[in-house]
Design a protein that fits this description.
Layout lengths: L5 E5 L3 H12 L3 E5 L32 H4 L16 H14 L6 E2 L2 E8 L3 H4 L2 E7 L4 E6 L1 E4 L6 E2 L17 E4 L6 E2 L5 H21 L9 E2 L2 H8 L2 E4 L2 E5 L2 E4 L4 E2 L11 E2 L12 E2 L2 E2 L15 E3 L4 E3 L3 H15 L8 H18 L9 E3 H12 L5 H7 L1 H9 L19 H12 L1
Parallel strand pairs: 1-2, 1-7, 2-3, 7-19, 9-12, 10-11, 20-21
Antiparallel strand pairs: 4-5, 5-6, 8-16, 13-14, 14-15, 17-18
Length: about 425
């Protein structure tokens, strides 16, 4: 039995907040270290972002509905719009943190310098965590477990070596360069429009899939504004850049654009764990081998978990929460991980499936599908809804869970962390949120 007492949580963003909450639920003592002066991580907009820190843009609006992105035990207020502006998302995080009194466990403006296994790690599973506050004061503490919540938007990826010539920046007309075909999805379509076009869309996707496979081989970009910009001519789509020539850009189709003022690299980010030894979590070309995208398979004791290092086809908040629910129970010895051989087999199977499905690119190394992955984690934690049981106790709810959206609330019906009260009350609560 691994009875972890103190847990170091590295990062106070969306994943870090869920980890603090789940630690408290399991009777653990979380100590969170956050380099900035506030919660929210990537979602906290700053006019002048901190160095080496990713930030959203001012007008960003969430592209998944509020019912699908919330934490399972803290619904987003009903008066909030379905697709929220980032400022409202921050409001929600503050409500969540205040309701569960999470901030008292966070050390702000504190950087984690080193996380190293203690000399007796094979027996104790403990870690030495060295930190530095903004005033330069260093401190080393012992923790029974560590949860890494630094995300995958860590370092800007600037492949300058792939674009010969000078680098300047953009004119009033924006040139949208697509090296690999990017499929854009508009989320504002009406139901009638969707029904009218569903047959044609199915036919088109089937044709595209069999001819090129490109539609399903990449993470889709959901954006309302870009198609309208393209149609109006304020954004033009171009192939890959061949070379920069002073203030001119030569594209691979031979066309040339002159008087370019600005170049924006929308090439994503890379992730790393500078506070960890490469022997603990090796990272190579944005690839990392983690069981269930969480656990380093080579550790003698399962007392370290990476939370939120995923690129989901869906919202990350409920996934991070589910990961945290599982990790805290593993730390306590209530859930056991399989042998290393089984973990490596699972890792290899996921890597091979990803290679078959997606084009080879660094943005597809941590891709997961929301529903299968949530069910996979929920089964491991013991909170996967039992449809047969629901059919007996609440047939209407069983139908909603089976055929309705995979809302996070349904993972509070059974097992550890289920809603307090009888099953009827829990069912009514889930039904309320389905409607």
């Amino acid at each position: 039995m691994i009875m972890a007492k103190r847990v170091a949580v590295i990062g106070g963003g969306t994943s870090g907040l869920a980890c603090i909450k789940c630690c408290l639920d399991e009777g653990l003592e979380p100590v969170c270290f956050e380099t900035s002066d506030d919660i929210g991580g990537l979602w906290r907009f700053k006019e002048n972002p901190d160095p080496d820190r990713a930030s959203i843009y001012h007008s960003l609006i969430i592209n998944t509905s509020k019912e699908m992105m919330c934490y399972s035990d803290f619904p987003i207020p009903g008066h909030f719009p379905n697709y929220m502006h980032n400022s409202l998302i921050m409001d929600y995080f503050r409500m969540y943190a205040d309701h569960f009194q999470l901030k008292r466990h966070i050390h702000f403006q504190t950087k984690v310098l080193h996380v190293t296994p203690r000399p007796d790690f094979p027996q104790s599973g403990q870690w030495d965590v060295e930190t530095e506050s903004n005033n330069g004061r260093r401190e080393k503490q012992v923790f029974d477990a560590v949860m890494v919540c630094t995300g995958h938007h860590c370092h800007p990826h600037l492949p300058l070596q792939d674009f010969p010539g000078a680098v300047h920046v953009m004119t009033k007309q924006t040139e949208c360069m697509c090296k690999v075909q990017q499929h854009n999805v508009n989320k504002g379509q009406t139901l009638i429009h969707i029904l009218f076009n569903i047959i044609w869309c199915c036919m088109l996707f089937c044709v595209l899939f069999f001819l090129s496979g490109r539609v399903f081989s990449q993470h889709p970009m959901v954006n309302d504004d870009l198609p309208n910009r393209i149609l109006s001519g304020t954004v033009s789509v171009k192939p890959n850049i061949q070379v920069f020539r002073g203030s001119s850009v030569v594209f691979e189709d031979g066309t040339v654009e002159d008087d370019i003022d600005l170049v924006v690299f929308a090439t994503g980010h890379t992730f790393s764990f500078p506070f960890l030894s490469s022997q603990v979590i090796p990272v190579s070309k944005n690839k990392v081998s983690l069981y269930k995208y969480m656990y380093p398979p080579g550790l003698e004791r399962p007392t370290l978990a990476v939370i939120g290092l995923i690129q989901p086809l869906g919202a990350i908040m409920p996934i991070s929460e589910m990961q945290a629910r599982g990790a805290t129970r593993v730390f306590k010895g209530l859930c056991n991980l399989p042998p290393m051989s089984a973990m490596m087999k699972d890792i290899k199977a996921k890597e091979e499936a990803m290679a078959r499905r997606y084009v080879a690119a660094q943005r597809h190394t941590i891709q997961v599908d929301y529903i299968p992955y949530m069910d996979e984690l929920a089964k491991q934690v013991g909170v996967l809804p039992s449809i047969l049981k629901l059919l007996v106790t609440d047939p209407r709810l069983a139908l909603n869970v089976t055929f309705g959206p995979c809302t996070p609330y349904q993972f509070r019906l059974h097992g550890p962390g289920r809603w307090e009260g009888n099953s009827v009350g829990s069912s009514q609560r889930v039904m309320f949120h389905y409607h």
